[in-house]
């Protein structure tokens, strides 16, 4: 009888444990569904932001490059003015910038009972100023080099050389941002290097800008140097976000754009007045082939286009990486040369066509690596979820086998 009573008691205990386990699993099931739903919404918002930034990069870059070339085609001569419009459009962002700043202050007030506490680990004003000023000065100088290139090169050639930014950025990201140089990325770098190098052998007859061979070489060197410098700036920007800014907000992106553009704009403005080109602006406007109004509109929309590009570029750096930002920029390679053939009668000769194919191939190689990284990341997350549900790591390895 004692043994039967003991067995009955064990059965009751087992039944209670089973009910508790079932109840626990039943309660955790809705929580799991809710968690997965929240994660899906966050992921959707994340990819939506990436898509918006990518559109900004493509549209802004294409429109601004074509309008910049139109300025030279129709009578514009001032390289300093062409540089100013690349940078001086940032005031159009100020209303939105101040709106974000005021919204953030209100939120902090509400959370802290009207007491604003400093943000943890916030960088000092001196360090932030150093980042904005140094990057701004570099960007101002690089934009001047880009203006030289756009003056002396056809739009299609200029754009293809700019694709080398991806290769330069990958090189700098390896040293500054701990980028892993996988076979796909190395293949991408080699293809982009060959793509730009081929344009050195382009014949003078294919140069639709009607400049001398020496001017063509100067334009090529300036564009290549500016592309290398821009690749470095993007890597430094990513490093600054990680080491100095240390903020996960869109306001941090706007701060980087506004203050960096403010400093960068001072460089061509000083050059415009110091060189004396300012005195010829009135005459240049009057002699512009499309008229004074078109002259002003061309410069204004060029400035707006570059600011749209900057928002997308810095946004992609903040959300992903500097290399991915440049990869999206390279997507515009087939767009600008084709439009240049239509609007500026640029000639698409064999060397230029091969260069474009290699550039696009290099971009696809890089994007394939991004796809592999994303797939491996998702696989890692799934394995982590299996382990947390009670499966031992040994069992996971056995299933893989």
Structure description:
The structure is a single chain. By secondary structure, this protein is mostly helical. It has one domain (48-104, 121-386). The protein is 81% helix and 0% strand. It is built from 15 helices and no strands. It has helices spanning 2-73, 79-87, 94-111, 125-152, 155-162, 164-176, 183-198, 213-245, 250-274, 281-287, 292-319, 322-330, 335-344, 350-388, 393-400. Helix 3 runs antiparallel to helix 9 (250-274), helix 4 (125-152) packs across helix 9 (250-274) and helix 6 runs antiparallel to helix 12. The longest helix has 72 residues, at 2-73. The radius of gyration is 28 Å and the shape is globular. It starts with a helix and ends with a helix. Mean pLDDT is 77; it is low at 106-120 and 381-401.
């Amino acid at each position: 009888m004692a043994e039967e009573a003991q067995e009955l008691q064990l059965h009751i205990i087992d039944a209670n444990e089973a009910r508790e386990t079932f109840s626990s699993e039943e309660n955790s099931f809705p929580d799991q569904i809710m968690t997965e739903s929240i994660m899906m919404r966050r992921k959707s918002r994340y990819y939506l932001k990436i898509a918006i930034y990518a559109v900004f990069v493509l549209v802004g870059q294409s429109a601004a490059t074509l309008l910049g070339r139109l300025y030279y085609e129709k009578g514009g001569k001032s390289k300093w003015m062409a540089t100013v419009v690349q940078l001086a459009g940032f005031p159009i962002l100020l209303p939105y910038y101040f709106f974000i700043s005021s919204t953030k202050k209100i939120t902090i007030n509400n959370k802290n009972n009207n007491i604003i506490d400093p943000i943890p680990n916030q960088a000092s004003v001196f360090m932030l100023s150093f980042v904005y000023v140094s990057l701004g000065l570099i960007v101002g100088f690089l934009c001047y080099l880009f203006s030289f290139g756009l003056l002396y090169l056809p739009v299609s050639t200029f754009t293809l050389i700019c694709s080398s930014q991806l290769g330069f950025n990958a090189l700098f990201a390896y040293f500054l941002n701990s980028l892993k140089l996988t076979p796909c990325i190395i293949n991408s770098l080699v293809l982009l290097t060959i793509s730009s190098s081929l344009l050195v052998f382009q014949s003078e007859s294919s140069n639709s800008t009607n400049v001398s061979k020496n001017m063509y070489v100067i334009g090529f060197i300036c564009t290549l140097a500016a592309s290398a410098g821009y690749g470095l700036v993007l890597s430094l920007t990513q490093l600054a976000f990680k080491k100095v800014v240390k903020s996960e907000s869109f306001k941090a992106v706007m701060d980087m754009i506004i203050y960096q553009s403010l400093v960068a704009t001072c460089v061509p403005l000083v050059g415009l007045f110091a060189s004396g080109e300012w005195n010829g602006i009135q005459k240049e406007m009057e002699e512009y082939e499309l008229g004074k109004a078109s002259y002003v509109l061309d410069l204004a929309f060029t400035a707006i286009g570059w600011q749209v590009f900057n928002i997308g570029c810095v946004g992609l750096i903040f959300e992903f990486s500097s290399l991915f930002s440049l990869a999206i920029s390279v997507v515009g390679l087939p767009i600008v040369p084709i439009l240049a053939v239509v609007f500026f009668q640029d000639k698409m000769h064999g060397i230029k066509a091969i260069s474009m194919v290699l550039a696009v191939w290099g971009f696809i190689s890089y994007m394939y690596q991004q796809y592999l990284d994303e797939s491996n990341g998702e696989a890692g997350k799934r394995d982590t979820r299996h382990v947390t549900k009670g499966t031992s790591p040994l069992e996971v390895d056995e299933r893989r086998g």
